[in-house]
């Protein structure tokens, strides 16, 4: 990746923190992804960083919190967050998101839902007119393991063009296992006309834990652009 894009990601992350971090924050959510690295870095530079707790969404974000000298907590201890920052695999102009490419979608959604304000930070490749336009790996769906065959069939009935049980690749023989000991399906629905409707349809399937469709959750999205600028969606 070019240095200009990396610089833009850093500018976007720093601006997101500078413009949104509550002055009297007590509990903060920190997600994962290449741009969120700079979010944690910026938060770690705050003079009052010992006065608030940071809640991770997975292993990577836990390490980011530790590496930047921030106080680590768990959502079981702190179920109400002042603000959360996280990345996304794709964002549309209505701030609907696809997340879960990194296999942490349930914990990411749990933290985002617990926050009073949810800020997305990403690079220009994640901007899209419609979900499914540029992110073609499909909607990540976390499921109870023994339900995968039934849910795969039902996803095709809902209109999916392709459904894959995510595999561990060279590092692991067999399916990816989430932090919650579940499987992940990636369901390609093409361009998604109504993300909220699709999310609700999938959630009704017995065995589905959560979907990677985040609707009506994000307040703003900051994008590091290819030319080194920052683009902001939302108010």
Q: How would you describe this protein?
A:
- Belongs to the ribose 5-phosphate isomerase family.
- Pathway: Carbohydrate degradation; pentose phosphate pathway; D-ribose 5-phosphate from D-ribulose 5-phosphate (non-oxidative stage): step 1/1.
- By secondary structure, this protein is an alpha/beta fold.
- The protein folds into two domains: 3-128 and 215-229, Rossmann fold (3-Layer(aba) Sandwich), CATH 3.40.50; 139-212, Alpha-Beta Plaits, CATH 3.30.70.
- It is 28% helix and 23% strand.
- The chain has six helices and 14 strands.
- The protein has helices at residues 3-20, 36-44, 59-67, 105-114, 148-157, 195-203, and strands spanning 27-30, 53-56, 71-72, 83-86, 90-91, 97-98, 118-123, 139-143, 162-165, 183-188, 208-211, 213-214, 220-224, 230-234.
- A seven-stranded mixed sheet has the order 3-2-1-4-7-13-14, sandwiched between helices. It has a four-stranded antiparallel sheet with strand order 9-10-8-11. A three-stranded antiparallel sheet has the order 5-6-12, covered by helices on one side.
- The longest helix has 18 residues, at 3-20.
- It is globular.
Provide the residue-averaged pLDDT: 95
CATH architectural designation of the largest domain: 3-Layer(aba) Sandwich
* Spans of at least 5 consecutive residues with low confidence: none
N-to-C span: 29 Å
Radius of gyration: 17 Å
Order of secondary-structure elements:
HEHEHEEEEHEEHEEHEEEE
Number of domains: 2
CATH topology call of the largest domain: Rossmann fold
**Strands side by side in the biggest sheet:** 3-2-1-4-7-13-14
Largest sheet data: 7 strands, mixed
Which CATH class of the largest domain applies here?
Alpha Beta
Derived structural class:
alpha/beta
Shape: globular
Tally of contiguous helical segments: 6
Helix content: 25-40%
Task: Give the number of DSSP strands.
Answer: 14
Strand percentage: 15-25%
């Amino acid at each position: 990746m070019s240095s200009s894009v990396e610089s833009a990601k850093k500018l976007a992350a720093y601006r997101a923190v500078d413009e949104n971090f509550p002055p009297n924050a007590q509990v903060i959510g920190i997600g994962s992804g290449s741009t969120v690295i700079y979010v944690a870095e910026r938060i770690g530079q705050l003079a009052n960083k010992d006065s608030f707790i940071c809640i991770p969404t997975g292993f990577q974000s836990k390490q980011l919190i530790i590496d930047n000298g921030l106080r680590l907590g768990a959502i079981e201890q702190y179920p109400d967050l002042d603000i959360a920052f996280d990345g996304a695999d794709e964002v549309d102009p209505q701030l609907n998101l696809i997340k879960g490419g990194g296999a942490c979608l349930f914990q990411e959604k749990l933290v985002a839902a617990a926050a009073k304000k949810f800020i997305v930070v990403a690079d220009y490749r994640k901007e899209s007119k419609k979900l499914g336009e540029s992110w073609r790996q499909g909607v990540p769906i976390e499921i109870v393991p023994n339900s995968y065959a039934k849910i795969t069939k039902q996803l095709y009935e809902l209109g999916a063009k392709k459904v894959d049980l995510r595999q561990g690749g060279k590092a692991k023989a067999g399916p990816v296992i989430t932090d919650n000991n579940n499987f992940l399906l990636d369901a390609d629905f093409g361009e998604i006309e109504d993300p909220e409707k699709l999310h609700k349809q999938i959630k009704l399937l017995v065995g589905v834990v959560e979907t990677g469709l985040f609707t009506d959750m994000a307040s703003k999205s900051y994008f590091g652009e290819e030319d080194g600028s920052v683009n902001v969606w939302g108010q």
